[in-house]
């Protein structure tokens, strides 16, 4: 239906003959933004040609150099659950693995939740740090490009919520499935899309992950279904993906994400019902970042216990600022689904640092002090770094080095995203249909020029 509407919109553009002279897709869209809407299935088809390459952990040294150890600064032990330092600074070896206490989840309709302890290897820790820091820096670059008017239109940033995307990805397989709403840049990255393709999508360039025609809300990768702009609409789609997994008997799960602002919609409860009835391997995840646009959860929800809102579906409330808590809870949830027990619901308590979108400064409905408090007490990146430093799992110098590598990668990606050409106008109508359909409506084929692929 959406495809049909898109096709009709595009056909209307053609029929009206407006925007004559536009050479590129973006010039055309500026004139036609009300009519043209390139929808997910089309862009999804584009993305299937891209090789899935989950971000690789960097090579890891197991020994610290003397210099690193000398320059290492002690940091505050922000995690009260962290174990005492295992090895002394006099030894050059890093602690290869440590165990951390994590916040116990609140549970609903479950006798027991995930364990209260999580193991972390040095390799994992460095990989999680690099991934979360890359997402953070990518979002800050997007903020900058937006303010320079290089990125236009909608843009919803994910900084603050990085532990959710990283923790989930660390707990599932690349062959499992993920679908989310419009705050999608972080998941696009953890599902394997390089920063340059994400930024180029934001700037509407040919090298973007949806060939520059999707933008901020419409990014896809294999087993990642976007990027959906209609609040809540991806939840029944996620249940459908889980139905496909069950039908195919492939033991895969679908992680279906939505926000607190979507959690009161009727379609969410319809999806819960069918998923429970058919015991679908669906992990429903409510990313509770405390606000839906400018409305706080207390003002929008009669019950803010989102993990209980599935009623007959078991639920967990998880510290969404702690990558280890998210990882352990998601593992627990995936095991539940793979054991054939049906769906499970997780509420990740998290926070977004930016406003709702780039047009929202984010400080009229919450105070600067509130944002600052979250940043200083529970920032997901600092928390992981402090844990690793205080357990001698890495040296401060390593983090600094990683930070400068990430900054360089982001700068290079931004250069690509600002120099790559825009897609040509005649590519605008590609990828609307999966097949070339000989469609006729009342004896005419107004969209006969639309091609299934380029
Ligand atoms: C069906 C529908 N209604 C309203 C909107 C407008 N809208 C866009 S985002 C949003 C708030 C959603 O908040 P939440 O689900 O908490 O996600 P967050 O932005 O916090 O990630 C609303 C109401 C929309 N896109 N779709
Ligand atoms: Mg929200």
Automatic annotation (TrEMBL):
Q: Identify the residues that the record assigns to the Dehydrogenase E1 component domain, covering every copy.
A: 130-424
Cellular component per GO?
Answer: mitochondrial matrix
Keyword Glycoprotein applies? no
What keywords would UniProt list here? Answer: Carbohydrate metabolism, Glucose metabolism, Oxidoreductase, Pyruvate, Thiamine pyrophosphate, Transit peptide
Recorded hits in InterPro entries, A to Z, give:
DH_E1, PDH_E1_Alpha_Subunit, Pyrv_DH_E1_asu_subgrp-y, THDP-binding
According to its UniProt record, the EC number is 1.2.4.1
**What is the annotated signal peptide range for this record?**
none
Family matches, as SUPFAM superfamilies: Thiamin diphosphate-binding fold (THDP-binding)
What does the UniProt record say this protein does? The pyruvate dehydrogenase complex catalyzes the overall conversion of pyruvate to acetyl-CoA and CO(2), and thereby links the glycolytic pathway to the tricarboxylic cycle.
Tell me what this protein is called: Pyruvate dehydrogenase E1 component subunit alpha
């Amino acid at each position: 239906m959406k495809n049909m509407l898109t096709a009709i919109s595009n056909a209307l553009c053609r029929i009206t003959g407006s925007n004559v002279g536009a050479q590129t897709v973006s010039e055309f869209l500026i004139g036609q933004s009300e009519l043209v809407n390139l929808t997910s299935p089309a862009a999804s088809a584009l993305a299937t040609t891209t090789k899935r390459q989950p971000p690789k952990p960097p090579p890891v040294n197991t020994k610290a150099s003397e210099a690193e150890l000398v320059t290492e600064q002690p940091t505050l032990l922000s995690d009260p659950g962290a174990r005492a330092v295992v090895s002394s600074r006099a030894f050059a070896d890093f602690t290869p693995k440590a165990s951390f206490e994590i916040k116990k989840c609140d549970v609903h309709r479950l006798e027991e939740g995930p364990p209260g302890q999580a193991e972390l290897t040095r390799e994992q820790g460095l990989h999680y740090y690099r991934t979360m820091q890359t997402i953070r820096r990518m979002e800050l670059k997007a903020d900058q490009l937006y303010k320079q008017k290089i990125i236009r239109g909608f843009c919803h940033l994910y900084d603050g919520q990085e532990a959710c995307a990283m923790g989930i990805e660390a707990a599932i397989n690349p062959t499992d499935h993920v679908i989310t709403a419009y705050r999608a840049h972080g998941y696009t990255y953890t599902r394997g899309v390089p920063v340059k393709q994400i930024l180029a999508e934001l700037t509407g360039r040919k090298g973007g992950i949806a060939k520059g025609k999707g933008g901020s809300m419409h990014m896809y990768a294999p087993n990642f279904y976007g990027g959906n702009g209609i609040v809540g609409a991806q939840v029944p789609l996620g249940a459908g993906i889980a139905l496909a997994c069950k039908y195919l008997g492939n033991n895969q799960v679908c992680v279906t994400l939505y926000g607190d602002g979507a959690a009161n919609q009727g379609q969410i409860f319809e999806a819960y019902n069918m998923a429970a009835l058919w015991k679908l391997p669906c992990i429903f995840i409510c990313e509770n970042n405390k606000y839906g646009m400018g409305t706080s959860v207390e003002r929008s929800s009669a019950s803010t216990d989102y993990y209980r809102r599935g009623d007959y579906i078991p639920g967990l409330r998880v510290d969404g600022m702690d990558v280890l808590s998210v990882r352990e809870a998601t593992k627990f949830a995936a095991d539940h689904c793979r054991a054939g027990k049906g769906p499970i619901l997780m509420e990740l308590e998290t926070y977004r640092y930016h406003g709702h979108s780039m047009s929202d400064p984010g400080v009229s409905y919450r105070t600067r002090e509130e944002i600052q408090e979250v940043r200083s007490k529970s920032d997901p990146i600092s928390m992981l770094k402090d844990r690793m430093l205080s357990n001698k799992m890495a040296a401060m110098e390593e983090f600094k080095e990683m930070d400068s590598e990430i900054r360089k990668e982001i700068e290079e990606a931004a250069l690509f995203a600002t120099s790559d050409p825009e897609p040509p106008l005649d590519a605008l109508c590609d990828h609307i249909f999966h097949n070339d359909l000989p469609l006729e409506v009342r004896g005419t084929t107004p969209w006969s020029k639309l091609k299934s692929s380029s």
